[in-house]
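Quick one from the shared queue. A colleague (R.T.) flagged Si:dkey-49n23.1 as missing a structural entry in our internal table.

Convert sequence to structure tokens.
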Amino acid sequence: HRETQNDDKDTQNRYTKLQRFPCVTLSVVLLIVVLCVPELRNGSAVFWEDGVSGGFQVLLLDEDQGWLLVGGKDHVYLLRPDGLDLKTRTVRRTQMLLLAVPLRTHETDCANFVRLLQPFNKTHIYVCGTGAFHPQCSYLELGPNAEVETSIIHPSILLLGCLSPEGELYAGTSVDFMGANAAIFRTSIQGSSQHYIRTEAYDHNWLNEPEFVGSFSIPDTHSPDDDKVYFFFKERAVEAGQWDRRVYSRVARVCKNDVGGKRSLINRWTTFLKARLVCSVPGPSGVDTQFDELEDIFVLETKDPQNPTVYGVFSTSSSVFRGSAICVYSMASIRAAFNGPFAHKEGPDYRWVEYKGRIPYPRPGTCPSETYDVLHKSTKDFPDDVISFMRQHQLMWEPVLPLGGRPVLTRVQQDYMLKKVVVDRVEAEDGAYDMNGKVVKAVSVIKDSWNREEIILEEMSIFQQHLYVSSDVGVVQLSLHRCDFYGSDCAECCLARDPYCSWDGQTCSRFFPSSKRRARRQDVKHGDPWSQCPITEDDSGSVEVKQVYGVEGNSTFLECSSRSGKAEIRWTTLICWFGSDRGLLLQRLDPTDAGVYSCSAHEQNYVQLQARYRLHVLPQHGLQPAGKLPGLQPGLQAHRNSWPNPLRSYKDLQMVDSLNMDQYCEQLWYREKRRQQKLRTLKLKQENRKARVRRNNPPERSGQEE
């Protein structure tokens, strides 16, 4: 089928107008990102469709053409990366098939949702969409006269895939309408000699209710015959038991030159193997906290194309303990698991154990190539015992462990879950660092051996240092270097430990690698401002003393905050010091509270004075309430004397863990409202009681005689 594709004129003028929408809320998977107009200055931008759920799940950045391609509902959007200006290409079917099925709705499923965008050549990209449960793949031209050449593929709902340079599509999908028959398959899009091949159908030992996350083509050796495609997914664990719904994360691989077996496993993978991905935090007595559910995968290329670094986002399966983690894996550890022992189960009533028997030759999972044996030029040449072994043994016994034996980043008991990870290798003043961007922006610093330190910078596809985040609602562009956030102080810029920023002598600005070692001040590894910045021992003169007046018996709030979320806030008076997160609330003032209060931020052996207050306590008896007569002063004094004596201890000083007093005032208002409500209820009960007494004991008449 060929159909000419024209721009949809109705959608060309529906791009972002910030004047009409003062604030937009974007849902990034389960993470909610709220971006208002003041936050969109600094090169950030937003794109969305007016009132239409676009289903923007796939992004492809074409740096040569200068386009950001976004796969949505019935459309491929071509956005300019610098401003997200809109240009569309329609990729809808000629006649959309409308399915009246109770389990699925027409609005959410019976449409052509683009799920795959892969570069094909300099002028075309390869696009695959669901096609209302009749998926199609197309070549989309990026020129002015775009045409779409459509080809039908076997599966019904494409979930993920990768396109090889040879014109072969590798994908993981659900083959049937109900989603019970999952498959990892390969199909040709150019009439290649490689034919359609997939995993075994309805066999839980191969795939058991999988949810595919990513797939990547990674070379194994210098010979192209050894190239493999790796799939990352999560599935119900077959080794956990029949009634256990436990979910494990997996990595599976197949050989690119696999053509199936000759007498068995015909049109089925003969090199399919899978292993468990473990991401856990070691605990006492050998009990680890497991992050079992894989959410996202990012493969960071290195100088060696055979050994990229794999970053994975994981979450917990528990409904009680909520947490997310990022683990890092090496290809060496992944290959070691596939070269290790196989898992074996003798029968339905047996447990999974390590296989101790004879392993046939060539080793199952090995690609047919001259690297291992020149006699096996194809998988059809494999002996029958190899094919029979592969039919029964797909699972490896040893799991894949992360580098360092633990996650590089964890977020637990938060009101959000990490769902996506993007990694950027940044050249800093003291080395190269990998940036993990939840948009949690963090840096992972390698210490001794493989010990790492996680540094949270901000909780907010790289193109000129921009991050693009898509959701069902729209696409947002965020700048990676937000150095203005750290201020103009050298120490604060150094303590931020942001590889994108450094102090240039006047302010914290974007870092550019320079041949002059001391041209920029930056210390990502240690964050030591003493070695980088001209710091004086006493900075008390740089902070103005604010005069604060309070009335005896009343409360007073002293506010203090630091730009760094990692700093410890301490308050100092003339007699002692004590810690506080954000502010200091003196609940009942006393004349002894008068004096100077200093707030300082402590981080990395560096102390920075944040605020200074001189508190004056006015005596209560010296004040006369407005509208009151002087004769009422003794009563007021008597009322004051009825107050309990103030307790002069740290317990009278309430630490306020908030940026302002809104929450505290709201609590006081709610407390006062409840007190007044109780008084009204008590008064109403007393009035009802008096009314009952009057009804039961009516007054005697004055003129009544015996």
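The first strand starts at residue 2 and ends at 4.
The two ends are 115 Å apart (CA to CA).
Added to the table.
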